[in-house]
Amino acid sequence: MNNAIQKLYDELQEDLVFYAESGAPPASRLGSALISIRSILIRLKVLVLSEDFAGEEAEINFFKNEKPLFVTEQLYLTEYATISLGKPTLNDELLVTYYTEELRRIQLFINRFGFLYHCYKLEASDLDRVLFLRDAEPSGLLLPENPDSDPNFSTSGGYLWAKFRAYERLQQWLIDEIGSLSALPNKTKQIKDEDNSLALKWTGGVVNLVELAYGLWLTGQFNNGDASITQIISWLEVNLNVKIGRAHRRWETIAARKRLSLTRFLEQMVQAIRRRLDDELSR
Questions:
Q1: Cα–Cα distance, 222 to 228 (Å, whole number)
Q2: How confident is the model over 180-200, as pLDDT tens digits?
Q3: pTM of the model
C-alpha cells in the first residue's frame, strides 16, 4: 500500500506543478488544482478501504503522516485563495495590515490548540492511539470539527495535523509577502523618480523570471560571475517591480516539472528569436 500511496502523492504534486505552470487565469488554475486534489483523495480513500492496514502502527502512520500530506494541499490552496481574493488593492500599506491580520488569525488557531500543536512540533507519539486510530474516542481533548465525516477514512487528529501543516505554509507565505512589500516600495520609488519613462514592471509569470534569473546566474552574466542568485533575484525585484520571494522555492517548482519541459520559458524564448530571425532572413 505504501508504494501506491506514494505514487498518488507524486501524481498530485505533478498535477499541482502543471496547473501552476499552465498559464491559465489564477481562478481557473486554482479550480483545476482543487478538483485534482479531490479526485486523488477519492482514489486514496478507495485504496485504503479496499485493503486492511498491516496493524495499528501502519494505520497510525497513514492518518498521522500520509493522508495529511494530501489534505494539507487542499487546505493550503483553499486558504490561499480566500486570502488572495479578499486582499485590498489600494496600497501596499493596507495590504501589509491585511496580511498581518491573517497571520494573527492563524496564530490564534494555533494557540487555541496549543497543547496538540506542541505534540505536532515535537512529533510526539504519546497520543497516537487516541488521535490516529479510527475507533478511538479522544474524550477530554479540544479538537476542531472534522469536515470528513466518514469514520472509515478519518480520525480525530488527522485533520488537525493537516491544518497545522497548511497553516505553517501560509504563515511563511504571508511573512514573505510582508517582507517583500516592506522592502520594495522605497527602492522602486527611487528608480521611478530618476526617470519614470524607464520604469518597467514584469507582468509575465514569476516562475519564468526565476528560470531566466538562474540562467543568468549559472552562465555568470553579472559581476564577472561573482554575483549570487540572491543578489540577482533582489536586483530583478527592484528593477522590474516584481515580488519573487524565496528563489529556492521557485527553483523547486521548476525542478518538479514532469509534464512540462524543465526549461519551458527559455525554450519559448529561443523559438521566438529563431522565428524572428527566420522571418527577417526570408524577406
A1: 9
A2: 777 654 544 454 444 554 567
A3: 0.68
